[in-house]
Amino acid sequence: MTSYKELGLVNTREMFAKAVAGGYAIPAFNFNTLEQMQAIIQAAVETKSPVIMQVSKGARNYANGTILRYMAQGAVEYAKELGCEKPQIVLHLDHGDSFELCKDCIDNGFSSVMFDGSSLPYEENIRITKQVVEYAHAHDVTVEAELGVLAGVEDEVASEVSHYTKPEEVVDFSTRSGCDSLAISIGTSHGAYKFTPAQCTRDPKTGKLVPPPLAFDILHEIEKRLPGFPIVLHGSSSVPQDEVDTINAHGGKLPDAVGIPEEQLREASKSAVCKINIDSDSRLAMTAAIRKHFDEKPGDFDPRQYLKPARENMKKMYIHKIVEVLGSNDKL
Ligand SMILES: [Zn+2]
Q1: What pLDDT does residue 159 have?
Q2: Ligand 1 centre from 190 Cα, in Å?
Q3: Against a cut of 0.90, is the pTM above it?
Q4: What digits encode the pLDDT tens for the residues 145-164?
């Protein structure tokens, strides 16, 4: 058993309370490589932002749970080395799909876990979330739950259709499950293809897809019923079109990749939404930099030559999100 406290990590309780009260959101960036971790920490330290480093089941299988635990510990020490005296870093399990997986993460240094029972029947979702909450709270670990189904693909999590969260269920669900935060479905979606062209309109000038707006009416209804309760948005990459264009200009093929407009995420950050998950944008920033590098310097074969610009590009994106979209800068 390794407690996250031994690693210098924190749970989400205090940072969410401050974020809800302060009208900003905490960035939750997915990671599974050294360069992503370095870029996340550099960005968080430079902007003085709390940060959630999150790992999906697939990322844990890819990178190894033990290595990730030490990477998170390394992230805390690295932040201190960069001049941040008291970093606020969370190691969070994204989309835990069983009590056993959540327990294993809690036993191995995670400070926060998500149990995603959104595809289960309502009562079953409550039952397992409650089981996770009881174990987690005994170890001072916080728990995110989910109600409503997002469309799109994220590692093993895939759904073709979305079901908006029903506001009339949120009080009963959060009270009976005891969860600390709630991921809701209001039209965000996993992956780099969040909407099909049929769901969008097309900008006549650029030919780019314009996605449908998020269901702010549902968000506001949930806020009214659960005042001050931390709300989480998954699938909230904006899929920056300059990165998509760079990828496509250098041999890539991502036609009609589309995300959530940043103005809408900015608006959501000011509400009870206090955690915004961003994964695809990091993948796109990394891929764009690497594709461009190889196109311009086909003779390079030292990974440092192409991973360094990839890391720089991700860091730039993380800083942009923190300062321009989520507003979590200077909140340490
Ligand atoms: Zn998600």
Answers
A1: 67
A2: 6
A3: yes
A4: 999 988 776 655 566 667 89
Sequence-distant (≥ 6) Cβ neighbours of residue 301 within 8 angstroms: none
The CA angle 137-140-144, to the nearest 5 degrees, is: 60
Strand partners, 153: 158
Runs of H (alpha helix) within the chain: 4-7, 13-22, 34-47, 57-63, 65-81, 99-107, 122-138, 170-177, 216-225, 241-249, 262-269, 280-296, 303-320
The sign of the torsion formed by the CA atoms of 325, 328, 9, 44 equals positive
256 carries an active-site annotation = no
Helix, strand, or coil (residue 210): strand
Average pLDDT estimate for 103-130: 97
| Amino acid, single-letter form, for residue 207 | G
Mean pLDDT score, 203-210: 87
| CB 282, CB 191: distance < 8 Å | no
The encoded tokens of residue 101 equal 């997986």
Q: Separation of 296 CA from ligand 1 center, angstroms?
A: 35
